[in-house]
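Example record

One chain of 212 residues, shown exactly as stored in the release files.
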Amino acid sequence: MKIKPTTFFFLIRKRILTIIMRTFVFLLCSLSFGFSSADIFSQNTKIEIIDDTTLTVDEVFKIIKRQTDYRFIYQEDMFKSFPKVFIKKGIIQANQLLDKSLKQGDFIFSIAANNTIIIKAKEVLANTGVQQRVVKGVVTDGQLPLPGASVVIKGTQTGAQTDFDGNYSIKVNDGDILVFSYVGMITQEVQVGTSNEINVKMTADTALDEVI
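Predicted structure tokens for this chain:
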């Protein structure tokens, strides 16, 4: 069967646009790592506090999320025993609010795609009796790697992003389930089990193509 020139050029153009989009997503995911809490946000990002209040760190994150387009990924119980912070009524810069809330700890900040702020503790906690291990793998569409794909442990806010070659690594427990997601692809869930390497081939979301 012959392919019409117009169809051929359409397929080539679609492939090029896909590669450009993936490269752009990767650059967004890798531009800004190693931030401190003092310079995560733009200086113009401000938060309104309606009344004098005492908040947990998790509540501070929720306020920032409601008033900006930022969201946070961090270990679910990371701030369970963290001291609350008193915030006065008025307007406060988001950087100052975040710094004030986390000044009692030592954390590593990074920014991924879609203004997602990833927070990790610098210090490794003492042995809790649960043996964690590192799972690695590659996320592709069957032909090309998917840079900037999201890999999150189901039911938690612990996650990772794939690099330019689609590689990722994440600390897990044997019973964890990994959730793989990417723009334009169908989200997949994979049981970790005893595997040390999990490679995922993602499938295009045809429903999204129909909408476009």
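Notes: Residues 28-34, 124-128 have pLDDT under 50 and may be disordered.
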